[in-house]
Design brief:
3 domains, mainly alpha, 577 residues, 23 helices
Length: 577
């Protein structure tokens, strides 16, 4: 045996390969394989310190082949022999790989943008998230800036190929998209997002070196980055938007019905048909509508439902008068939510969070709010609040939005997952919409138990947010699978929610440009609430809400089938006590 190992070691050394000791334990073998795949995947897809990812056809083809090989290796694992945690690890690795493989198979790389944003905004955000401390960090940043033109050109080439093959975003969702590009183009260095790292000199760099770095940054932004963004702007205005497809349905794309079914199963982690999802949405819309009507009657409003919605959309009392008022209200709600957490949760995250406006460059076509998680230990998470067009940001929606994006929603869930030191990195960073967005909507529901909706209008805001997510099931499947028009979807969402018309149109365009993602929220929340009811009924006096939440969150973000298994095991264990 020793001779065999020596021969393997010699051959591996000659081949330039690392030697991994042979393992006999199934869990050790799997853990070894999983770590190899994760490390290789990270190297394959990640941005390097000194350059942006290679998006050439050859590079994408290599990634696809590697992922197919890893997928086959995972399929050969006897999952029944693995521990409970390794079974979850296996499921998550398979899920992640399948998503990348399927996106490439269905040519998602030909449409690297949605109605809200695209690769050009991702580049800017990626560069802003780069932690710069030492001179070498700034040198790497400058080298990465120098690769922006190539990266932008590669992505534009894919979009041009999409024009030729009929795989584009619909023209209907691209109105005004070019402004999200031009907002990054400026020679005013303090205003440039790419120059922000050079506004404050760190103590680790002397003044002379700092001035040299600043000069190089200015030169790169003016001569390389700005022209790259200008070229992309001209491509969008002159070629892409005029040539984009007139249809809106994913099913209208080549192999579109299969693509939509694939995305539905990916985002929901459930085996459902579009018709099943559509019917679930209609049933939820009917239920929520009756609860909304009860609040209207409580307020003794004598008009119709449509007239009440018009009142909410137009009365100035419901809207902030300044960005500062909206941000202060969001911050106050966040602290109010913080104080209620110990009553519902045993485990709370260490990572703090802040409340900031949505970046101005993307705000006009961006959603109402979003969570941006910490990428490094020295960072906080951020609850983003859209301060663009204040007359479209009703205050009665803010309690539900805050609970969803901050705590006990995304910040709490994502931070807890990231802080799980016992889990492998690919588990701590994993996020699936069905779990994460389902939890966010469940967090809005928890506001009832937290006493968060302290007036009928705030509670109506909660219901209009829940209706928003239920209506998504109807309009997303309607547009992508059942022949609905964009206007039909706008009308359905507008008639059943109190969302401002600006938000209604922004959201419908988001669903058109991001097929099936919107389905994950309501289906995930329905699953979590159903599992809680099962636990409450079966455990009766033994049920502890804090323990239930620990069980749901303790494994990070997981596919819903895994969550069901975990909750069933917890119920059985507590019944046996």
């Amino acid at each position: 045996m020793r001779i065999l190992l020596l021969i393997i070691t010699l051959l591996a050394g000659l081949a330039g390969c690392a030697v991994v000791p042979l393992q006999t334990d199934p869990n050790q073998r799997f853990s070894q394989l999983a770590e190899q795949i994760w490390q290789a995947e990270t190297r394959l897809a990640a941005s390097e310190p000194d350059r942006l990812p290679d998006m050439s056809p050859a590079a994408l083809s290599v990634r696809q082949q590697k992922r197919l090989e890893w997928q086959q290796q995972l399929l050969q694992v006897d999952v029944a022999q693995l521990s409970e945690q390794n079974q979850i690890n296996h499921a998550i690795l398979q899920y992640r790989l399948a998503d990348h493989i399927d996106e490439y198979r269905f040519n998602a790389h030909l449409t690297p943008l949605t109605s809200e944003s695209g690769f050009h905004t991702s580049v800017a955000m990626l560069l802003q998230r780069t932690g710069l401390q030492q001179k070498a960090d700034y040198e790497n940043y400058l080298q990465k800036l120098a690769t922006v033109p190539l990266y932008m050109q590669q992505q534009t080439d894919w979009m041009r190929q999409g024009l030729l093959s009929g795989i584009t975003q619909p023209k209907a969702v691209l109105t005004g998209f070019e402004h999200s590009i031009s907002s990054y183009i400026t020679e005013d260095m303090p205003a440039s997002v790419f120059y922000r790292p050079f506004l404050t000199r760190p103590d680790t760099i002397n003044n002379s070196e700092w001035q040299q770095l600043q000069a190089r940054a200015q030169q790169l932004i003016v001569n390389e980055v700005n022209p790259a963004y200008q070229a992309f702007y001209e491509f969008m205005v002159q070629e892409y938007i005029p040539g984009a497809r007139s249809s809106i349905a994913a099913s209208a794309l080549p192999d579109g019905a299969a693509f939509y079914q694939n995305r539905l199963e990916h985002y929901t982690t459930l085996k459902l048909t579009p018709r099943q999802v559509h019917d679930t949405g209609l049933a939820e819309v009917k239920r929520i509508r009756s609860e909304m009507q009860a609040i209207i009657e409580q307020l003794e409003f004598t008009g119709s439902f449509a007239e009440f919605i018009h009142f909410l959309r137009t009365d100035p009392q419901f809207y902030p008068q300044s960005e500062q008022e909206l941000m202060r209200y969001a911050a106050w709600l966040s602290k109010k939510a913080d104080a209620e957490l110990p009553r519902l949760f045993k485990t709370l995250p260490r990572t703090p969070y802040g409340v900031v406006p949505v970046p101005a460059e993307i705000a006009p076509k961006y959603t109402t709010g979003r969570y941006s998680g910490a990428s490094r230990d020295e960072q906080a998470g951020y609850y983003w609040v859209n301060t663009y067009a204040l007359n479209r940001r009703p205050l009665y929606e803010m309690p539900a939005l805050t609970l969803h994006e901050a705590v006990p929603g995304h910040h709490l869930q994502i931070s807890l997952a990231r802080e799980q030191a016992s889990l492998p990195d690919y588990r701590r960073s994993f996020y699936t919409s069905a779990f994460g967005e389902g939890w966010g909507l469940y967090a809005e529901y928890l506001g009832l138990e937290m006493g968060f909706y302290d007036d009928p209008y705030a509670d109506f805001g909660r219901l209009t947010y829940e209706m928003w997510r239920a209506a998504r099931l109807v309009v997303d499947t309607g547009m992508h699978s059942m022949g609905w028009s964009r206007q039909q979807a706008i009308d359905f969402l507008a008639e059943n929610t109190a969302l401002s018309m600006h938000n209604v149109m922004t959201e419908i365009d988001r669903y058109i440009s991001w097929p099936a993602q919107a389905l994950s929220y309501k289906l995930g929340e329905l699953t979590i609430r159903r599992l809680r009811v099962e636990a409450e009924q079966k455990l009766a006096d033994k049920f502890d809400i804090r323990r239930f939440h620990d069980v749901v969150l303790s494994n990070g973000s997981v596919p819903l089938a895994v969550l069901e298994q975990q909750v069933a095991a917890y119920i059985a264990a507590d019944l046996a006590k």
